[in-house]
Amino acid sequence: MRKLFILLFVLMFASSSLAAQNEIVFNLGADPRTIDPALNNATDGNNVITNIFEGLIRTGFNDAPEPGCAESWDISEDGMTWTFHLRDNLKWSDGKALTASEFRDGFLRALNPETGSPYAYYGFFIKNGEKFYNGDANPEDVGLSAPDDKTFVIELEYRNPLMLDYLAFSLFQPARMDIINENSRGWAAKPETLISNGPFKLESWKHGEGGEITLVKNSEYWEADNVKVDRLRFVFINDENTALAAFRAGRIDYMGTIPSQMLPMLLKQGQAVSQPSLGTAFCDFNITREPFNDARVRRAFTLAIDRKIIIDKILLGGQRPAVGFVCDVVPGTTPDKDFRTEGGAFLPEHADVDEARRLLAEAGYPNGENFPHISYKYNSNSGNKSLAEALQGMWKKNLGIEVELLNEEWKVFIETRNRKDYDIARDAWIMDFYDAGSLLETLISNSPQNNTGYNNPKFDEAMTNAAREMDTVKRINFMHEAENYLMEDLPVAPIYFYSSAVMQSKRVKNIHRSPLGFVLFRGAEIVK
Fold it and tell me: Can you tell me the distance from the alpha carbon of 55 to that of 58, in angstroms, rounded to the nearest whole number?
C-alpha cells in the first residue's frame, strides 16, 4: 500500500509540475539515430530537425511550402535560375549572423559523397549536383552561389516540378562548417556544438529507452515572438502501453504511439483522433541472395498475406489494405481520382492461397518442401511484434514455411537493413512530399534508401523521366509506368496504407501534425 501511495504521489507531482511549466512533452517513441539534417532518414530524427532548423522554405500549417529564411525569390525566364533573398537579421542560436554562404555550405555538404547523405539524390536537380556527388565535378562547379550575405542563387540541372517542396525538406539546411569540420559525425549530438536556426534549440540529450531530448525556445529565431512554448521534451517510450499510461497520468501531452487493441475504444470515446497520413508499410525482400532472388518466391510470399485480416484484427486503426505500393490520397492526373484509384489494384485484399502455392511449387518448393531457413527482422515494439507474428502465421498456414522472427533495437535494425543482413525485413515509408515519386524513388537502383538490392533499368528510366517532367499529367503517367514494373518484380510486399492516430492533452493546442509524418511545435500553446 505504501509503494502504491508513493507511485500515485510521484505521478500527481509530475502532472502538476508539468502543468505549471510552459513546456510540452511529446513521445518521440525511439531515440533517434541522428538529428544531423544531412544524415537523418527517419521520422523520429525528422521530428527534431524540423523544430530546430529552418531552410529557405518551410512547411506551413496548411502543409504547403511557404517563405522561411528566404522572404522572397526571383525565377529567371527559362526557369533555370532561382535567386533567394534572405530576411534581415537572421541569426544562429549562438547569436552569430546567418549568411547566404552558409546555405551554400549546407547544400554542398548534403551533396558531398564524403558526407554519405541518404538523401543526396534530392539535390540532383542542382546544376552539376549529381556530378559532384559522383566525384566528376568540384564544389565550384555546382550551381550554388552567394553573391552577398543576403542573396543565395541556385542554378538548375533541370527544372524541378517540386522545387519549393524539396527546399522545404529537412535536408536543405544551412550549415556551420566552422563547427562541423571539428567533428563531422558527432557535432549534432551535443548542445554546445548543435547550433541551429529554427524556433527551438537543443538543450540536452539523454540516450536510450526512458531518455529524452530537451529543446528550448531559440530567442534568436527571426519569428521568436510567435513561439509561445519555452520548452519541448521529446521522450523515448517505445512500449505503447507504457506510453498510454504516461499520457493518462499527465506526463505526456502528445503522442502517436497507441496500443492497437485499445485504439478502437479510444477513437470511439474521442480520446484519440485519426489523422491522414501518406505512407505505406511493407516487407523488404533481400533479392541479392536466395531464395528471394526468385520473383516467383517473392510473389508467393506477397500473395500469402491477408491484408484485410491484418488491418481488421491486428492494427485496428483505420488503415487500408495496400493493394499497390503508392498509397491512396496521393494526387493523380485529375482532381477526382488519386494515384491509387488511377493505377488500380495489383494485389488482393485477402490472401490468394492457391496462386501463392502454385508459384512456390513452380519455384521448386511444393508445399514449402526443401525451403531454406529464413527469418523476418523487425525493430522492437509491441505493434511490430504483433504484425510479425501475424505474417509468420500466414506464411506457415498458406505456404507451409516456418519463418523465424528476429527483433532488434531501432538503431541496430536500421544498420542491419541498410547492409542487407536479412531475408525479409520490416519497412515503411512516410512520404516526404505530396507526390508518388517520394515513395517510388526509394527503390531506384542507386538510391541509398533501396534496402532490397532492386535494380530494373526500365523502372529507373521511368523515374528519371518523371523527375524531369514539368507537365503534371505526363509526370504522373511516368510514375504509373514505374509502379507497374515494380509490382511485377515485387522486391517489396506492400501490406497496408497508413492512418495515424494521435492523443493530445487538453492543456495544449495548435500542435500541427503533417500527413507527411512530422510534428510542428512553433505555433503550439499551453491552454491557460
Answer: 6
pLDDT digits (tens, 9 = 90+) for 33-61: 999 999 999 999 999 999 999 999 999 99
Same domain, 266 and 281: no
The SS3 of residue 258 is coil
pTM given for the model: 0.86
| Helix-strand-coil split of the chain, %, nearest 5 | 35, 20, 45
Domain count, the chain: 3
Check residue 341 and give its pLDDT.
96
Considering the domain architecture, whether residues 206 and 327 belong to the same structural domain is answered as no
Distance between CA atoms of residues 521 and 182, nearest Å? 31
Domain boundary among 126, 148, 180: 180
Q: Which long-range contacts (CB under 8 A, 24 or more apart) does 338-346 make?
A: 339/436, 339/476, 339/479, 339/480, 342/476, 342/480, 343/480, 343/483, 343/484, 346/483, 346/487
With respect to residue 127, please indicate whether it lies within any of the assigned structural domains.
yes
pLDDT at site 381: 84
Q: Based on the domain organization, do 291 and 438 belong to the same domain?
A: yes
Same domain, 444 and 431: yes
Tens digits of per-residue pLDDT, 341-361? 999 999 999 999 999 999 999
Distance CA 374, CA 508 (A): 47
Domain span at 458:
275-500
C-alpha cell, 499: 492512418
Instruction: Report how far apart, in Å, the C-alpha atoms of 323 and of each of 168, 282, 495 are.
Output: 30, 11, 8
Question: Between the CA of residue 387 and those of 42, 267, 378, what are the distances in Å?
Answer: 20, 21, 10
Kindly state the helix (H) or strand (E) to which residue 515 belongs, with its residue range.
none
Q: What sign does the CA torsion over 190, 192, 196, 200 have?
A: positive
52 and 157: one domain?
A: yes
Pairing relationship of beta strands 144-148 and 508-509 according to DSSP bridges = unpaired
- Give the model's confidence band at 276: pLDDT under 50 very low, under 70 low, under 90 confident, else very high: confident
d(CA 237, CA 352) in angstroms, rounded, equals: 38
Listing DSSP states for 357-400 in one string gives: HHHHHHTT-GGGTTPPPEEEEEESSHHHHHHHHHHHHHHHHHH-
Q: Decide if 297 contacts 360 (C-beta within 8 A).
A: yes
Residues 241 and 386: their CA atoms lie apart, in Å, by 14
**17: pLDDT strictly greater than 50:** no
Q: Flag whether 264 is in a domain.
A: yes
Q: Distance of alpha carbon 46 from its chain centroid, rounded?
A: 7
In whole angstroms, give the CA distance from residue 382 to residue 241.
9
Q: Is residue 379 part of a domain?
A: yes
C-alpha cell at 346: 495489383
pLDDT digit string (tens) for 110-164? Answer: 999 999 999 999 999 999 999 999 999 999 999 999 999 999 999 999 999 899 9
Instruction: Say which residues have a Cβ less than 8 Å from residue 265's Cβ, sequence separation at least 6.
Output: none
